[in-house]
Amino acid sequence: MNPKQTSRLRSLLLLSLAVLAACSKPAPEASAPTPESAAASTAAPPAPAVSAEVQAMGADQLREAASKALDENRIYAPGGNNAVEYYLALRDKTPQDPAVASALTDLLPYTVIAAEQSLARENFPEAQRLVALIEKADAKAPALPRLKQSIAASQQAATQRELDASKNAEQQAKLAEEKRLAALKTAADQQAAQQQAAQQLATQRAAEQARPQEPTRTAPANPPPAPAAAAAAPTTAPANNPPPSQPAETPSAAPTLRAISQPPPRYPPDALRAGTSGEVLVEFTVGTDGSVTSARVVRSTPPRVFDREAVNAAKRWKFAPISAPTTTRRTINFNPR
C-alpha cells in the first residue's frame, strides 16, 4: 500500500473505533450448545472466506484489484469484491510477499470493527463472513474467539426472542378466543332467559283470559237505616193462622262500568331500556262519581317491576257515574314494542 492509502486507512480506523464505541453493546452469554445446534453447524459448513472467482484471478490481477478496492474504500465489503479478499488470495499465490502480509495486518482491525458492527445490527450472515476473513488472515487473532462466541450467543438470543414472541402471540390468540366464546355463551344464556320469561308471561296471560273477571259489589259507605219492624199481630188472631211469608230480597246486579278516560301507564325507564315486558293484575274500587278511590296489586309479572306505574295509572282512570261503589280487577300489560 502507498502512503496515501495508509493515511486514509488510519483515519478510517479512528472513525470506525468511535462509531463502534458509541453503538456497541455487551454480547449475551452463550449457553451450552444443544444437540440440534451442533447438528446444524455440522450439517451446514460455513462458506469459504475467499470466493472462487477471486481465487481464480492471477497475481497481477489481484494486486491491481486490491489497490483499486483500497482507493474506493472497499476494504472488507462487498463480498467477493474487497481488498481483504484480494490480498488473502494473493497471499495464497505469493506466500513470501511481505507487502501482502503487511497489508493484511493493516486491514485486519477494520475487518474486526466491521464484524462488531454487523453483530450489533444482528446481521449474522455478514458478521460470519467477516469472521471467516479474520480467521483466514490470522487464525490466532485475539478478537476471533470473542467474535465467534458473541455471534453464537446473539443468534441464540435472537432465536429465543422469536420463540417467546411466537408463544406470546399464541397466548394472546387463545385468550381472545376464550373471551369470544364467553361472550357467545353469555349472549345465549340471556336469550334463553328472555325466551323463558316470555313463555311464562304467555302462560299467565292465557290463564288470566280463561278465568272470568266479574266485578264484585261492595256495600255502601253509609247504608240506609233498616225499615221499622212491622207491628205485632193482635193477640186475638187465631193461633192456627200464621202470618203471611215475606218475599226474599234479590240482590241487584253490579253496575256496569263505562270508561270515560283510561290513560296508559308510564313505562319504567329501566325496564324500557332492558326491553322487559310484563303485566299487572290490579284490583280497584270505583266510586259513585266514576273516579277510582283505591287500587292495589293482586299479582304482577315480573314481580315489583311495573307495580307502582300500574297502580298510578289505575288511579287516574275515570268512569261514568254509577249508583254504588264497585270493586273490580283489570290486567294492565306492559310491552316495550
UniProtKB/TrEMBL annotation:
Residues covered by the TonB C-terminal domain: 252-337
Domain of life: Bacteria
First-listed, main subcellular location of the protein, grouped into a coarse class: membrane
Keywords: Cell inner membrane, Cell membrane, Membrane, Protein transport, Repeat, Signal, Signal-anchor, Transmembrane, Transmembrane helix, Transport
PROSITE patterns: PROKAR_LIPOPROTEIN, TONB_CTD
Chain segments carrying region Disordered: 26-50, 194-273
Bias-annotated ranges (Low complexity): 194-210, 228-239
Pfam families: TonB_C
Keyword Protein transport set for record: yes
InterPro entries documented for this protein: TonB (IPR003538), TonB-dependent_transducer (IPR051045), TonB/TolA_C (IPR006260), TonB_C (IPR037682)
Topological type in the membrane: Single-pass membrane protein
Subcellular location: Cell inner membrane
Residues annotated as signal peptide: 1-21
Keyword Kinase (UniProt): no
GO biological process: protein transport; siderophore transport; transmembrane transport
One term of GO molecular function: energy transducer activity
GO cellular component: a single term: plasma membrane protein complex
Purpose: Interacts with outer membrane receptor proteins that carry out high-affinity binding and energy dependent uptake into the periplasmic space of specific substrates. It could act to transduce energy from the cytoplasmic membrane to specific energy-requiring processes in the outer membrane, resulting in the release into the periplasm of ligands bound by these outer membrane proteins.
Assembly information from the UniProt record: Homodimer. Forms a complex with the accessory proteins ExbB and ExbD.
NCBIfam families with a match to the protein in the record: tonB_Cterm
Family statement drawn from the similarity comment of this UniProt entry: Belongs to the TonB family.
This protein's name: Protein TonB
Lineage of origin: Bacteria, Pseudomonadati, Pseudomonadota, Gammaproteobacteria, Lysobacterales
